[in-house]
Design brief:
By secondary structure, the protein is of the alpha+beta class. The protein contains three helices and nine strands, in the order ββαβαββαββββ. The chain folds into two domains: about 60 residues, Ribosomal Protein L9, domain 1 (3-Layer(aba) Sandwich); about 80 residues, Ribosomal protein L9, C-terminal domain (Ribosomal Protein L9, domain 2), CATH 3.10.430.100.
Amino acid sequence: MKVLLKENVEKLGERGEIVEVAAGYARNYLLPRNFAVQATETNFKQLEKERERLVRREQAERADLEAAREKLERTSCTLVASASPEGHLYGSVGAREVADAFAAEGFEIDAHHIKIEHPFKETGVFAVDVELTSDLVAQARIWIVAES
């Protein structure tokens, strides 16, 4: 069965593509969840109009994300943690704590979007990648200091 995708569907296709799927997959999953419609000329024309509107909106959102990235890269957050006199943390600082620190600075970032190789276990200054979109990554700084 040929369907026209109304949304991006992982491992299937992007919005606006016509894909061939099993009839049961379309009938039981794609169509009820409004991810796709049957591939007809009328539906295709309607989706083209909607796509033009979506492109304009995505361009505006992209500009906002670019501005947010620049602001985020100029910002540094300070995290206070329990540490030994040598600078070793008694616990660790992970993505959740970093996201909370950015939230205190006014950035609403999900912890899943913060990319760190491993939790931080020492005090110091660290670079953290924040994935705003799949192709737009901001590099922010965090300072981890010992509590007095």
